[in-house]
Amino acid sequence: MTDSQNASSVYADIINLPHHKSATRPHMSLYDRAAQFAPFAALSGYEDMVRETARQTDSEIELSDNEKDIINGVLTEIAFLAESGAHPTVSVTYFIPDSNKQGGRYETYTGMVKKVDTFQKELVFYGSGDIKDKRTPTKELSIERIFSLLIQIPSDSGQEQNENSSISI
Fold it and tell me: Which of 79, 94, 96, 123 has the greatest CB tally within 10 Å of its CB?
């Protein structure tokens, strides 16, 4: 007797019965049945962790006392211009610390200065660049994170000229 004949004789009493359908549970679709055997991520979050570890950050450059003095002089000039109503356009390169790991990145922001807040140690910009627009939120940058400044003062002829109030390291 072969294996197939042996199997059919063992199950001869149930082989021709109709397929059982549960009265209490709905029939599972083929899509749901296939999902049971789909691959899964055994180490969930591992790819994100590898990506975060590979992400590069810059280290913050420590300015010398001379460079800090130059930046403070430029900030004093900006404060004077803002208080006198000139509101110069300034390009600021500043450091943003990374919240997840050591280091961070440098960004440059250009905008019209509203004021230099020495109490909060912030350079405050108009949000929209329009002095009359009081609804748009302002942007504040920490003075302690500033790396370089460039003041652009409009000349009398209406064209902008870059004043020699720049520091770059």
Answer: 123
Over residues 85-93, the mean pLDDT reads 89
Tokens 């599972």 appear where? 28
- What pLDDT, in 10s, does the model give residues 121-131? 999 998 766 66
Q: Look at the pTM and tell me if it is higher than 0.70.
A: no
Asked whether the beta carbons of 75 and 149 are under 8 A apart, the reply is yes
| Token pair recorded at residue 99 | 């919240």
pLDDT tens for each residue of 12-55 = 888 888 888 888 988 888 888 888 887 777 778 888 888 888 88
Nearest alpha carbon to residue 151 among 122, 107, 111: 111
Sheet holding 89-97, edge to edge: 139-142, 122-125, 104-117, 89-97, 146-154, 160-166
Q: Please name the residues in contact with 67: beta carbons below 8 A apart, sequence gap of 6 or more.
A: 167, 169
Q: Enumerate residues 6+ apart whose C-beta is below 8 A from 149.
A: 71, 74, 75, 78, 90, 91, 92, 93, 165, 166, 167
Q: Which structural domain, as residue segments, surrounds residue 68?
A: 1-169
Whole-number average pLDDT of the chain: 82
Residue with tokens 């929209």: 128
CA-CA distance, 144 to 17, in Å (whole number)?
Answer: 82
